[in-house]
């Protein structure tokens, strides 16, 4: 279990793997789809995944140089795990939205943690 969880070190690693589920991606495509990741961190994550045998890197001698990344055979074995994480995350989002709707439907005075104040004094 510990060895398996090291594969998912940090949020960016999981998101890189998620983006590669759709097939081969160029470095620039990954960078655009992962808004907020620095080029240095993306390169480090891709190198780590390549060293772990999960990602294949293909370099083309073009000007400018082109590099493509794809899941390896071993990386393909992660697909059910990523899909399960996505389903779990979607369920959490739906629960959060449902709870927010319930809170919005309650009158303000009955909401937990809400205290009404008028003229500096607490009122019920």
TrEMBL record:
Keyword check for Transcription: yes
Location of region: Disordered: 102-124
HTH hxlR-type domain mapped to chain residues: 1-97
Taxonomic superkingdom: Bacteria
Assigned keywords, A-Z: DNA-binding, Transcription, Transcription regulation
Coiled-coil regions listed: none
Keyword DNA-binding assigned: yes
PANTHER family named in the record: TRANSCRIPTIONAL REGULATOR, MARR FAMILY
Record's protein name: Transcriptional regulator
